[in-house]
Amino acid sequence: MARIASPLWNSLALDRAAALPLQEQIAAYFRAAVLGGRLRAGTRVPSSRALASDHGVARITAVQAYDRLVAEGYLVARAGSGLFVADSVPEHLARPAPVPRRERAGRPPELKRPRPPAMPARPLEVLPLSAGIPALDHFPWSDLQRITARIHRERPVAALGYCDPRGEGLLRQAIADYLGAARGITCTPEQVLVVAGSQQGIDLAARVLASPGEQVWTEEPGYPAGRAALQAAGLEVVPVPVDDEGVDVAAGMRLAPRARLALVSPSHQYPLGVPLSLGRRLALLDWAVGAGAWIVEDDYDGEYRYSGRPLAPLHTLDHGNRVLYLGTFSKVLAPGLRIGYLVVPLAVMDRFVALKAASDRHAPALTQRVLARFMTEGRLAAHLRRMRVLYAARRAALLKALAAEAGGLLAPEGAAEAGLHLVTHLLVAGDDVAISRRAQDLRVHASPLSTYYAGSRRRRGFVLGFAGTPETEIRAAVRRLAAAIRAAQA
Fold first, then answer.
1. Is the separation of the CB atoms in 267 and 311 below 8 Å?
2. Residue 358's Cα: distance from chain center in Å?
3. Is 130 in contact with 122 (CB distance < 8 Å)?
4. Does pTM surpass 0.85?
5. pLDDT tens-digit profile of 58-106?
6. In the chain, what are the domain boundaries?
7. What digits encode the pLDDT tens for the residues 309-322?
8. 421, 269 Cβ separation under 8 angstroms
9. What fold is seen in the domain 139-377?
10. Cα-based distances in Å from 293 to 233, 254, 263, 320, 325
11. Residue 221: is the preceding peptide bond cis (ω within 30°)?
């Protein structure tokens, strides 16, 4: 099938005062476009009549230019179809155009700001055992399709223009209602800010609540992408160790007592999975009040607990308006939606709204309306109930596969039946980053545990996601990971 015509030739500018005839100017333009790769093989060029009309030249001028290009091998004529770029340009012509001397010698201006920190590498393709991926094979397509069709039939013109940077009112109300019922958080829609996933929530908090050069606590090990967002905002990251009770608040007070901000995951620490004990929660809140600091509570997968009751968020204990609660639909539905939310104290909400509006104005309004209906019609609650059953089965399958296929190689850590991943520790010598690359070649994504640390003391192992991998594929994936570990021993 022929490619559709390209609009490239709209940039053809003819100089009628030049000594070079118009016919030659047209031919030279198309030669350069073909040799430079801007017109690819098989692309249809405009007819001589259209070219002449668009650029105000006699048709015979366009015809003669095209005849030259055909004779030189750049274009070919197809009966009844028109003229197309040849599939193969003559070999002596198919070489890169020389770069002008001044372009070779020129250098871009020096950048004054430091290079932004690198985000953790992960394949774009969803591979078995990928962490942070929910069950995309159970995405509620039908429910969302019906809701989307209804909204499109309603034609909400207001959603097509510029919208409230805080987010659509219906979605903010739905989020406030959901948090009250599911997480015990009392808040109003006026405290809810819709953001482009938890990553933007962390970025906004870093830029609003702290100034470049100030210190911020992060968990050690902790969320690498969150750490990168804080560093990109110019903050000094202070890794605070995590033990069986969660982040060690006393250690944080020794390391950076006047830190401005703390990024923590109290309900299910990422990646180790331990909950923050009540004593540590109270100590963390006392520190924040005494130091005049803020806490960003990343409750990234608080919906998923497979035995007992979900742990109450830190936000429910906060009486000093020091905690910002960060939630996301990335783990509930899909990361590609790029929708999350911050519960912000009203005293600083105007600053968050101003920065949100300055960075990207607002999240996509139509997507927000679809999500609001999905929540208010009870579809989200039903989806979560189904996913808890599914994820419990996939978690059990991963534990069984690790025992059967990787015994003596990997040891799962943490008995808490919660979340969407497991942490495993290497029982043999080896570089978990190198093993992870070997595993990816075998089509398994095992995130190396060592990359979750900011300091030099690092444990080796893997963060293995089970939520996004069908139960029938888990054992084979673990077998391939074990093969990668054994290959590293050879």
1. yes
2. 20
3. yes
4. no
5. 999 999 999 999 888 899 998 888 899 988 765 545 454 455 555 455 6
6. 7-103, 139-377, 382-489
7. 767 899 999 987 99
8. no
9. Aspartate Aminotransferase; domain 2 (3.40.640)
10. 17, 15, 11, 11, 15
11. yes
